[in-house]
Amino acid sequence: MKAMVLNEICDLKENRTPLQLTTLPIPTPKKKEILVKISACGVCHTELDEIEGRTPPSRFPMVLGHQVVGTVEETGPNSNRYKAGDRVGIAWIYSACGICTFCRQGNENLCEAFKATGRDANGGYAEYMTVPEDFAYNIPDVFSDSQAAPLLCAGAIGYRSLRLANISNGQNLGLTGFGASAHLVLKMVNYQHLDVKVFVFARSEKERDFAKELGAVWAGNTEDKAPEMLDAIIDTTPAWKPVVAALNNLRPGGRLVINAIRKEDRDKDYLLKLNYHEHLWMEKEIKSVANVARKDVSEFIKLAAKIPIIPEIEEYPLESANEALLELKERKIRGAKVLTLS
Ligand SMILES: [Zn+2]
Ligand SMILES: [Zn+2]
């Protein structure tokens, strides 16, 4: 099968083709696994973190990609949840131990044995992949394969972060950074919490305009002071300045939820501006969002079909994965980027 593989960590400024087109054997599904013939795989910022070593693959070569849609080609021994021809999705969570306290509580995203698709097991930048059947999801009919793919990451993690933000009716929610995940959160809030006002902080004017178009009551720059104090803020940026700025906008008892797999070191000095009294005093809280649990993916996909959330997409053939990744890095974004396989 054709696959785009990562052979080593590299700097995208120097290496414009981090992934190599390779031929790999089609994997065989093991016990309780399914073999999926891939039709679409979303391109995510996390792939940039993997390539540049901020969350490196656990082995090389690795097939990246964790927003996968395809059809079941074959089922392994004792695998009976799906049959050949079923359409399924695969997300960032590839597997977990199933027996630890976290797994038993449905927080398998925190499991010590957590494995990520496309980082610890081969993912979707290929024609086929295998996955444990319990870590695949049904995809509602309203979505095409390419439309469903980006929902499996940004949407599911956005859903989890909104859950952790613990916002209730009448409260004010802030979103700092307004990319794929944040704009989906805004759509979920519009649908679920009619009385929640959303305030958006974004560097680019285009993103701020987009936020207002989608119903944000206010949109300003990262460091701006919102016109009202906020009860919770979700941060989806890779930087530190938005963290400090967000804490300054929180009400007493407010919560900052950081939804970023890694923070970059570039502006880490900004943390020195952190002033205990202004930013943390009065029981302000900081919480991160780690990975996703299966519940987040399956609940979000159903919610997205109901709202409905149909993502804007930009398709690329598998062979153009490097081009799609570089455009993502350089913020040339017209919609969620999806690799398609014929
Ligand atoms: Zn992702
Ligand atoms: Zn576990």
β-strand percent reads 25-35%
The kinds of small molecule bound in this structure are: zinc ion
- Measured on Cα atoms, how large is the radius of gyration? 20 Å
Number of beta strands: 18
Low-confidence stretches: none
Largest sheet entry: 7 strands, mixed
Number of distinct helices: 9
Give the overall shape, derived from the CA principal axes: globular
Strand and helix order: EEEHEEEEHEEEHEHEHEEHEHEHEHE
Determine the N-to-C terminus distance. Answer: 12 Å
Structural class: alpha/beta
Overall mean pLDDT stands at 95
Helix coverage percent: 25-40%
What does this structure look like?
- The chain has helices spanning 45-51, 101-104, 145-165, 180-192, 205-213, 241-249, 276-280, 294-306, 321-329, and strands at 2-6, 19-23, 33-42, 62-63, 68-75, 87-90, 93-95, 115-116, 128-132, 136-138, 172-176, 197-201, 218-220, 230-235, 250-258, 285-288, 313-317, 336-340.
- The protein has 342 residues and is of the alpha/beta class.
- Helix 4 (180-192) links the parallel strand 11 and strand 12 (197-201).
- It is globular.
- Residues 96-97, 100, 102-103, 108, 111, 113 line the site of one zinc ion.
